[in-house]
Amino acid sequence: MNTLRFFARRTAFYLFTAWAAITINFFLPRFMKGDPISAYLARNQGRVSPEAAESLRILFGLNTDKSLLRQYADYWGLMFSGDLGRSLSRGLTPVTDVISVALPWTIGLVGIATILSFVIGTSLGALVGWRRGSRADILVPISTFFSTVPYFWMGLIAIAVFATGLGWFPASHAYGRGTQPGWSLQFVGEVIQHGTLPALTIVIASLGGWILGMRNMMVTILDEDYVTVAQAKGLPARRVLTRYAARNAVLPQIQSFALALGFIVGGTLVMELVFSYPGVGKLLLDATNAKDYPLMQGLFLVITLTVLVANILADVAYAVLDPRTRQTEA
After folding, report:
1. How far apart are CA 290 and CA 207, in angstroms?
2. Does residue 178 surpass a pLDDT of 80?
């Protein structure tokens, strides 16, 4: 009964959060100065007739005949039908097609880098916390230092050393110029080669937070009575580390990891700018500069829903690993 009540409360909370986020997603761009049609006409002065401009305003729902609330209702109807509109800055291409092109690049690169960073950082943090006071503690200030370095400089240094200097990796783009995208070994090899350097910079930049967080939780958990009792029983150190200490210390990390996974879809804008990598972050920046409402709303919608789904999965994992959560929430 407590379990059902827990999931019912969380479901209601996330449904309300999704409604609020989608509502803000609709109204916020319309409160900005200007509109996509005006920006488009400014870039194409003299090449668009008044009749064509009016047709574009009607197509994008910017004509004055419809009230804002009516546009809001139409937006929900189109969204449920899978129609996110057409991107004015991308030649009236459907928003879903534009996002579907950029999304795999972001998920593939940033997703893998985030998962690697979490696994490596959490494992190292558990070992450092278990061996607190040893030489392993040197990992904390070293990794923290790299986390404080602005990513812009880290990316440029990585390009200067490993791309320009040593020539180990390409300096930019997701694959070689002139290469035809496909599932050929050549294309896949180029994608891996081009993505290795930006992925490594993401891992190094985010490793310090995972190590420090897990190390501090391990130090706290090791003082708990159940860990002391497990050690007093003569259990192997490896079992005490994995089954008792690390299992409980990792719980707060899961929530942070879920948020990190959710924001993967948003991309790493600075990384995409430094490495000229095609992704959602750069696409969102271009849509904002062009005041492309449909594309902005589509990107925000995908990011919002991804964050919500990631949090739901984190709640489920948290409830499975720690039954006390279900009892407290219920």
Report:
1. 35
2. no
Tell me which amino acid residue 284 is.
Answer: L
Residues 154, 271 contacting (CB under 8 angstroms): no
Q: Supply φ then ψ for residue 148, to 5 degrees.
A: -85, -15
Domains along the chain with CATH numbers: 14-94 (no CATH), 104-329 (1.10.3720.10)
For residue 157, give both structure tokens. Answer: 């240094």
Q: How many CB atoms lie within 10 A of CB 301?
A: 19
φ and ψ at residue 86, rounded to 5 degrees:
-120, 140
The length of the chain in residues reads: 330
> What pLDDT does residue 61 have?
62
Sign of CA dihedral 263, 264, 266, 267: positive
Residue pair 158/201 in contact (Cβ under 8 Å)? The answer is yes
Residue 194 has pLDDT above 80, yes or no: yes
Q: What is the pLDDT of residue 167?
A: 81
Interacting residues of 104 by C-beta distance below 8 A, sequence separation 6+: none
Amino acid found at 245 = A
8 Å CB contact between 191 and 184? no
Q: Which of 119-123, 241-245, 258-262 has the lowest mean pLDDT?
A: 258-262
Going 258 to 263 to 267 to 273, the CA torsion angle's sign is: negative
